[in-house]
Amino acid sequence: MAKCSVCGKGAHFGKKVSHSHRRSNKMWKSNIKSVRCKVNGASKKMYVCTSCLRGGKVERA
């Protein structure tokens, strides 16, 4: 599973609890996109979460 190269956000794990309180494993995936970004003047492809994209933490190429 990919992680955000800016903030390190990845998948989260926990339990899904039904109405009868039976538990099963669950995974929440982060919204991560493959984006071309400017790094030290050159364009580089990196994985970035959408909250970092909207927050302006990455300059797109």
Count of helix runs: 1
Order of strands, widest sheet: 1-2
Oligomeric state, counting identical vs distinct chains: single chain
Strand content: over 45%
The ordered H/E elements are EEEEH
Name the poorly predicted regions.
Answer: none
User: What would the average pLDDT be, to the nearest integer?
Assistant: 95
Key attributes of the depicted protein:
1 helix; 61 residues; 4 strands; 8% helix; single chain; two-stranded antiparallel ribbon
Brief synopsis:
Keywords: Ribonucleoprotein, Ribosomal protein. With 61 residues, the chain is mainly beta.
Give a verbal description of the structure:
The chain is mainly beta and about 60 residues long. The chain has one domain (about 10-55). About 10% of the residues lie in helices and about 45% in strands. The chain has one helix at about 50-55; strands spanning about 10-15, 25-30, 30-40, 40-50. The strands form 2 sheets. A two-stranded antiparallel sheet has the order 1-2. Strands 3-4 form a two-stranded antiparallel sheet. The two termini are about 25 Å apart. The model has no long low-confidence stretch (mean pLDDT about 95).
SSE order and pairing:
Elements lengths: L11 E6 L5 E6 L3 E8 L2 E8 H5 L7
Antiparallel strand pairs: 1-2, 3-4
